[in-house]
Design brief:
mainly alpha
């Protein structure tokens, strides 16, 4: 039987960040709805751990998309060298 413990806030935050990196790497290796859902689950847990409701997170996302255009139009900014 695996050992487990309830993490303190700092440890939990660190573990969630590690898990996010892991899930993103898996998605980059094999893009799928399953992997994307795993990323969303970790993002949800991170937002909760930061005290940000899913409604507030969506509001922030929507505002940034309005201000910066989001990704809907598939515009890529080219680097100036």
């Amino acid at each position: 039987m695996p050992l487990a413990h309830k993490a303190e806030k700092a440890e939990y935050s660190a573990k969630l960040k590690e898990k996010l990196a892991e899930e993103v790497a898996e998605f980059l290796e094999k893009a799928s709805g399953e992997e994307l859902a795993d990323i969303m689950e970790v993002v949800r847990a991170l937002s909760e751990s930061l005290g940000i409701s899913k409604e507030k997170l969506e509001e922030i996302r929507r505002k940034k998309a309005e201000d910066r255009g989001g990704f809907k139009e598939r515009i890529i900014l080219d680097e100036v060298k």
